[in-house]
Design a protein that fits this description.
Elements: E1 20-24, H1 29-40, E2 44-49, H2 52-62, E3 66-69, H3 75-84, E4 89-94, H4 109-130, E5 134-145, H5 156-175, E6 180-186, H6 192-198, H7 202-212, H8 221-233, E7 241-244
Parallel strand pairs: 1-2, 1-4, 2-3, 4-5, 5-6, 6-7
Length: 253
């Protein structure tokens, strides 16, 4: 005679209960998925994005505390956004922005200059203005990548930004302490932006990753969201870069 084992789910307190999380670029992909996770963990969510219509759709889904539509590459807009936020906040996650690809002969220097400045100045602007509103022990989380660590044709601009961001984040963590600053460095993540960039090559890219990288699956927004929530919760983590690529950087491109 056998005795059945009944497994009772272990209830846990929501990890971000009562906290306020701001998302800059939180209307799609990684930002939106992390906002969903934060909301499910009890956080009050504040969303921002450039596209007002998409921002409203995301706000309706998440019952956000407030929203703001602005260009996150504009330091003045970032300053105004944080100045108008009511009360202290706990965490800020920045996912706004996109990579730049192009061979030397084809690089638009004006566009490249703007994009390099956008990535670095955006982090500086957010750190300057958000640090005045974030509670001690809260964190600023920025997004970087791992793909630019390996030299390749068309990757010069992306590689330069990839190399610069970890150093910038480490310095910011010292300068605005006790507010924490961390960087998530992702490989390929299956998002609408990836679909836009790859077009007809998207499915080939997915298949290549499933058959070559160690985890044998494609990294999705939920994977990055889980890491971001952990960085918010663990107050011992600051000034570091956290790779999340399923081992992609260890295999041939």
């Amino acid at each position: 005679m056998s005795t059945a084992t009944i497994v009772t789910p272990v209830a846990h307190e929501p990890e971000l209960l009562g906290q306020t999380v701001v998302f800059i670029g939180g209307t799609a992909g990684i930002g939106l998925e992390t906002a969903r996770r934060a909301h499910a963990e009890g956080a009050k969510v504040i969303l921002s994005g450039r596209d007002a219509e998409r921002l409203q759709r995301a706000a309706n889904e998440l019952d956000t505390q407030s929203t703001a539509a602005f260009d996150a590459t504009d330091p003045n807009a970032i300053e105004q956004f944080f100045a108008q936020l009511p009360g202290p906040i706990d965490h800020v996650m920045v996912t706004a922005g996109r990579p730049y690809y192009g061979r030397l002969a084809d690089i638009d220097f004006a566009n490249a200059r703007n994009l390099i400045g956008d990535h670095l100045l955006q982090a500086l602007s957010v750190a300057r203005y958000a640090s005045k509103k974030v509670r001690p022990g809260g964190t600023l989380i920025f997004m970087g990548g791992v793909g630019g660590r390996r030299p390749a044709l068309g990757m010069a601009i992306t590689s330069a930004v990839t190399a610069a961001l970890p150093a910038l984040i480490a310095n910011l963590a010292i300068e605005i302490a006790p507010v924490r600053v961390n960087l998530i460095a992702a490989g390929f993540v299956d998002t609408p932006l990836s679909a836009e960039l790859l077009g007809d090559d998207l499915e080939n890219r997915r298949h290549h990753l499933r058959t070559t990288i160690p985890i044998r699956r494609v990294v999705g927004p939920a994977d990055v969201a889980a890491l971001a929530i952990h960085l918010m919760r663990n107050t011992a983590l600051t000034g570091a870069t956290y790779d999340i690529d399923g081992g992609q950087q260890f295999v041939a491109a």
